[in-house]
Structures are given as C-alpha cells and as structure tokens.
Amino acid sequence: MLGTDALLSLGASVLLMVCVLVGVAFLTLLERKVLGYVQIRKGPNKVGIWGIPQPFADAIKLFTKEQTYPTVSNYIPYYISPIFSLFLALVVWAVFPLWVGMYNFNLGLLFFLSCTSMGVYTVMMAGWASNSNYALLGGLRAVAQTISYEVSLALILLSFVFLVESYHVLDFSKYQEGIWFVCLALPLAMMWFASCLAETNRTPFDFAEGESELVSGFNVEYSSGGFALIFLAEYASILFMSMLFVILFLGSSIYTFSFYIKLVSLAFMFIWVRGTLPRFRYDKLMFLAWKSYLPAALNYLLFFGGLLVLGV
Fold first, then answer.
1. Which of 267, 235, 170, 220 is nearest to 70 (CA)?
2. Which of 189, 167, 192, 184 is nearest to 312 (CA)?
3. Residues 6 or more apart in contact with residue 86 via CB below 8 angstroms
4. What's the pLDDT tens digit per position in 294-303?
5. Whole-angstrom distance, CA of residue 125 vs CA of residue 132
6. What is the pTM assigned to this prediction?
7. For residue 122, what are the CA distances in angstroms to 11, 151, 205?
C-alpha cells in the first residue's frame, strides 16, 4: 500500500513538473508577444500557426548548440549551478495545494522560504565559477538584492501566518472564502508583488543582468544548455510567485477555473511591468527594501500580532 502511494506521489510530481515546464514555454511566448505589441511590432509569428510552436523551436536550438566552457572557469560549480537552479525552481512546486496525490505539507510556507534562500547560492556559484569580472559583479548584485527582499517577503508572510495560525498553504484558501486578504491588506499585497519582482530579478529590479553595464550579469559566460536552464528556472519562479500570490491574497481553490485566470493575470502583470517601467537605480532599490518595506512590514506584523494576542 505504501509503495503504491509513493508511486502515485512520484507520478503526480512528474506530471506537475511537466505541466510547469510546458507552462514556462508558453509564458516565454506570451512575454515575447506582449512585449512586441507594447513596442508596436509583431512578436514571434513565423514558426507554425501564429508562432505558437516557437518556444519548442527555441528549446531545440538551445539544447543542440555546442556547449562552451571558459578555460579558466571552476568547472564543476560552473556546470552544476544551472542544474541546481532549475531543480530548486521545480522542487518548490511541491507546496502546490493539491488535496490528493502529492505531498501534504503542514509547513509548506517554511519550505518555500527555504527553497528561495537556497536559490541565492546558485546565483553566487554561477557568477563566481565563471571566473569573469562581469559575472562576479552581476552575481554579487543579485545576491545582495535577493537577500534584502527575502527579509520583507518573510515578514509579510508572517503577518498572514499570524492571522491564519498555520503554515499550510491549503488553510489560506479556507480562510478567504468570505473575504480576500488583498481587501484586508492592500499595501502588503502591493509590497509582496514588488518583492516578487525583485526576488525573480525582473524589471524594474533586473540589476543582476543590467545589459548596459554588466553585459548580461552572472550568466554572461553561459551558452546553449546552461543558459536555457537558467532561463527556465527564472520563468518557473515567476509562475510559482504568481501562483503563491493568488493563494495568499486572492484566495480561491485550485480546482476552480478562476484560480488559473488569476494566475495568468498575475504572470501577465510581470510582463506588463517589464514593458512599461525603466530600471531602478541600485541605491534606490536597497533604500526601498530596508527603509520602506522593512518598517512597513514590521508595523503590519505588530498589528496582526496584536490581533492574535487579543484573540480577535
């Protein structure tokens, strides 16, 4: 019986990973199409009907190209870091709140925080092991940025953990049947979204790959398969953050169609922001994290902690 359960869990996990990777493929297509129309031009439209198979053509091209290795690179960390990066981006989906066939995490949100913290090491390894000054600078900037915004992410999350009194992701859906948390704490939702943009190295916080000054940042020495894995990890993280935002703030069961409409809308907002906003200045980014979001998140945390103590 236990063996059957383990096999079912494994099969469900593999199916979920495949679905995530297909979703990532079409998210890249959506991004290229939307950015095309934002900039008054056409997106990919040559491969197949309306360019729909374009992501698969790109994947085949990237993975069949010759892999290059800088002769002065530290080979093993250089090789492993993109694989580990994608592994972390996929394994965090284990907290996806399915009732059956998956892993029932009572501490799902702690698992999410642990996985995002581990993601820092992959960026640092990739930047350092390339043995390039540009890659190292890009990696250091990405690490400083990610660590800074993880603080505000954790504190915002803790505020709602005080309200729900659980780390289980499913409980957030149950508690929002009457009213969404975005209505109770709109500023926290906006701060969470901005922190997600910074956490996933997206515009306007894409300093890790500031093309003009860092020549693509920590992944500058990567090509073909390694670059594709880093790219996949970034977009898998965007989809995951969109999913988590919907569960935490726009509570709905994953068995409803509206859940997926909200998820796609959130992913679209990531793209919309990229097409609209210019890059921040780096000191402004750090100021925003430590001088704006941290005090605001702490105040909300004290407020919700007070409600918990009073038993409201």
1. 220
2. 184
3. 229, 230, 232, 233, 236
4. 999 999 999 9
5. 12
6. 0.91
7. 27, 19, 19
